[in-house]
Amino acid sequence: MRDFFQIMKEAKIYREERHNKSDLIYKYYNGSEIEFISVDQPTKIRGRKRQYLWLNEANEFTYEDFRQLLLRTEKQIFMDYNPADEYHWIYEKVLTRKDVTLIKSTYKDNPYLDKTIVKEIESLADMDKNYWRIYGLGERGTSETIIYNHWQFCDELPDGEVIYGLDFGWNNPTALVKVVIKDKNFYCKEQLYQSYLTNQQLIEKLKGIVDQNSYIYADSAEPQRIEEIKRAGFNIKPADKDIKKGIDTIKSHGLYITKDSVNLLKEIKSYSFKEKDGRPLDEPIKLNDHLMDSIRYACHSHQLMPKPEIRFL
User: Shortest CA distance to 47 belongs to which of 68, 21, 78, 25?
Assistant: First the structure.
């Protein structure tokens, strides 16, 4: 939605009086309107009918979500997704239909893609065959090197000990994850995933998200940013960045992710080890891993924190 309105404004066709911000509806002069909805609640899916429907990141929807929306769409449905899942209802129940057209595009079809991202994608051809299939060729993923395969969905975070992981970015998004520790399990929820945030803008956002008594474990490669956030009153500490030990920490605990953590779910489904001569290495691929880093910073660094000593007098 943010992208849509940014493009409208840059094209100088946006009119604020036609934008119903509370209902997330934009009306055009010809009587048409576009409505933005999320599917976090079943009542939103079973709402009013429409002529056209666009499912963004369609592989994050359930098949039941798709069916209910299909029944309420009169003319045409558009779906976009990265084919990271090896098995998915889209492959079996949508692409097999006779009334479906598959349009495959790759990074080469996007003239606006940042050159650094193009370079990273093209490096995958020698680094990881599965990632190259997905992000380079637009083909269905067939990975045997996925790092986390023990995670499960949860509807919401339980009560428990709260910590945060923070990965700084600029062109890449700044990523913040809330982690609740309960019964030796990690429960995770995406809190922030946004590019081009100055440190002051990030601090303002943290004020609306983080309890200032909770630990934030941040990328230790940015000590000046950490110090500025600390001076703003937050309990922020540099994270331990031992990747292998961090991954082992997460693998040794139960891992749950809330269903509304869209970017987090996208990352974890394709978070993979590098390959060499067809064999996985201990080093993850550095692509679409910002929230993955945040989780590792929080979970592993907190395990290393000295625990209060209990003495009996």
Answer: 68
Reduced to 3 states (helix: H, G, I; strand: E, B; else coil), residue 116 is helix
Neighbours of 232 (CB within 10 A): 16
Assess if CATH 3.30.420.280 describes domain 152-304. yes
Measure the CA angle with vertex 75, ends 70 and 81; round to 5°: 55
Give pLDDT tens digits along the chain (313 positions).
888 899 999 999 999 999 999 889 999 888 899 999 887 766 777 777 889 999 998 988 888 889 989 999 999 999 999 887 777 889 888 988 889 999 999 999 999 888 998 998 998 888 777 788 888 998 887 667 889 988 988 989 999 999 999 999 999 999 999 999 999 999 999 999 999 999 999 999 999 999 989 999 999 999 999 999 999 999 999 999 999 999 999 999 999 999 889 899 989 988 988 877 767 788 898 888 999 999 999 999 999 887 655 555 5
Per-residue tokens: 280: 């996985």
Please give the sequence-ordered ranges of beta strands (E in DSSP) within the chain, or none if there are none.
19-20, 25-27, 33-35, 50-55, 73-79, 152-154, 161-167, 174-182, 185-194, 215-218, 235-238, 254-258, 273-276, 279-284
* DSSP β-bridge partners for residue 164: 178, 216
Domain ranges of the chain: 2-94, 152-304
Using CA atoms, how far apart are residues 27 and 5, in angstroms rounded to an integer? 12
For residue 165, give Cα distances in angstroms to 17, 72, 193: 39, 40, 12
Measured over all CA atoms, what is the biggest interatomic distance in the chain, rounded to whole angstroms?
A: 80
**Residue 84 CB partners (closer than 8 Å, separation 6+):** 59, 134, 141, 266, 269, 270
DSSP states of 121-143: HHHHHHH-HHHIIIIIS-PPP--
Q: Give strand pairing partners of 163.
A: 179, 215
Q: Beta strands 215-218 and 185-194: pairing type?
A: unpaired
pTM: 0.63
